[in-house]
Write a structure and sequence with these properties.
heterodimer, A: about 230 residues, alpha+beta, five-stranded antiparallel sheet, four-stranded antiparallel sheet, 3 helices, 13 strands, about 30% helix, B: about 230 residues, 2 helices
């Protein structure tokens, strides 16, 4: 069995006006009792929890502490944490790459990734010639690395067209301007090498073949014997 | 506006099976699902987990408070087990995913993240292999982090340097999986190479080789012709 108590300070406003302090007691996974600083009372969710909650609700000192904790514990700590960590932002590293080439009737696929950003909230979308694309798009949710950084990925299936401009746009708190990556369908370095090697081999083969053929022809036509 | 959740969790586990009265626990403080501080009962001190981009924060007397809380938890859980009449233990198997922390480039050090989530109770083992060989270095494990639904999640990370063709796996062992460890595989297969250039390279080299063979053949034939003439 596992038994745990969870203390929470939940808020969304910068002045903490909506802050609420919650205490939850859980035995064997499910919450048995939950105490709320705004309502200044505890609620039981299981048969045993209801009994415990009744006892807590009769304890005036406990309820006073519950109410006061929203200021002494929650507001105090939240102010420190917000200024030290939560109000910071780390810019994502945005990388676009091709993960599938167009072949016959199958469309190509681009991947846009944003790595190691904070906070978690981010917006990633695709533009084609400056218009937002929503179809043929598959995106992950923000994924946590477990050490305060997050990542997100989006895939776009598309059929390449000449002159078309494909962009991935990322909006994040770390930057006032959206981060834009434009797909440049130039040949990658290794592909360029492959073309170079192939072309070199082919040219070499052609040259040697032609040289051999010419040499043979000269030899054969240069000496024609006339019967005695 | 975004809702924020600054939380602390104090938990302990207990088994009333005959001869297995092991109790261990966790005390952790975090915000928005990230850990800031936890109590390490082996080191007998608090451990900070603040990000490098943040300003420093201290947690004075948190460890001492945690020890008191843990003592209370251990006493309570024995009583609660009786009060709740030893109900069947809740079991939820983990869902696991594996992904790199940063864009993967061959030869550049990176970190693989193995994320197990949605499991209960919070007691899990995560093992790593590289090309089917167990690895023990470069591994770290986070604290159990609570989810809204009462289950937990945990992160294990493994520092690695990608090499083409390497296969990594993280194996998750949890009692709710009923003896079948859950494994997730990560293949180092950087930037699926486009087929076109490779095909061109292959065909061109083949034709080039054919040209070389043909040219050589004609050179030899010309030489033989000359020799034949000499004999005559």
């Amino acid at each position: 069995y596992y038994d745990y108590t969870k203390f929470e300070c939940i808020y969304s406003t910068s002045d903490y006006s909506d802050m609420v302090y919650l205490v939850s007691l859980s035995f064997n996974k499910f919450v048995d009792i939950k105490c709320n600083s705004t309502e200044v009372k505890c609620v039981g969710f299981t048969e045993q929890g209801v009994k415990f909650a009744d006892n807590f609700n009769k304890d005036k000192a406990f309820l006073q502490n519950l109410k006061a904790s929203v200021d002494t514990f929650c507001r105090h700590n939240a102010e420190i944490i917000d200024s030290a960590v939560r109000d910071k932002a780390v810019k994502p590293k945005v990388i676009m790459k091709s993960v599938k080439q167009a072949e016959g009737r199958h469309p190509a696929m681009l991947q846009c990734s944003a790595y190691e950003f904070y906070p978690k909230k981010i917006k990633m979308y695709w533009l084609r010639d400056s218009k937002v694309i929503t179809s043929d798009v598959t995106s992950t949710m923000e994924m946590a690395n477990g050490n305060w950084y997050y990542q997100i990925h989006s895939h776009l299936e598309y059929t390449p067209k000449n002159g078309e401009k494909i962009q991935c746009v990322v909006e994040h708190a770390s930057s006032t301007q959206p981060i834009t990556k434009e797909w440049n369908p130039h040949i990658s370095e290794s592909d360029r090498n492959k073309f170079a090697i192939g072309a070199s081999g082919l040219v070499l083969g052609i040259i040697i073949a032609i040289a051999g053929l010419i040499y043979y022809k000269k030899k054969s036509t240069g000496r024609i014997l006339v019967p005695n | 506006e975004i809702v924020h959740d600054y939380f602390s969790i104090h938990g302990c586990s207990y088994t009333d099976e005959e001869g297995m009265q092991a109790v261990d626990g966790e005390d952790m403080h975090g915000i928005d699902n990230e850990e800031m501080w936890h109590a390490d009962y082996n080191l007998k001190t608090g451990v900070l987990s603040l990000p490098d981009f943040g300003d420093p924060i201290t947690f004075p007397r948190f460890y001492e408070t945690s020890v008191i809380e843990m003592t209370g938890c251990k006493a309570n859980i024995v009583s609660l087990t009786k009060i709740f009449n030893s109900p069947p233990p809740e079991m939820d198997p983990p869902q696991t995913s594996i992904y790199p922390k940063d864009d993967v480039e061959l030869g550049v050090q990176n970190t693989l993240v193995c994320h197990a989530t949605g499991f209960y109770p919070p007691s899990i083992r995560i093992l790593w292999t590289m090309n089917n060989v167990n690895v023990t270095e470069g591994i770290s494990l986070s604290q159990y982090r609570p989810r809204v639904d009462g289950t937990f999640n945990i992160f294990s990370t493994f520092r690695f340097t990608p090499a083409e063709g390497d296969i990594y796996s993280c194996r998750v062992i949890h009692e709710a999986l009923l003896g079948q460890p859950q494994a997730k595989i990560y293949d180092v297969d950087v930037a699926i190479p486009s087929v076109g250039p490779s095909v061109f390279c292959g065909v061109a080299l083949s034709l080039g080789l054919l040209g070389i063979v043909t040219g050589t053949f004609f050179f030899i034939k010309a030489f033989n012709y000359n020799v034949d003439m000499e004999v005559n």
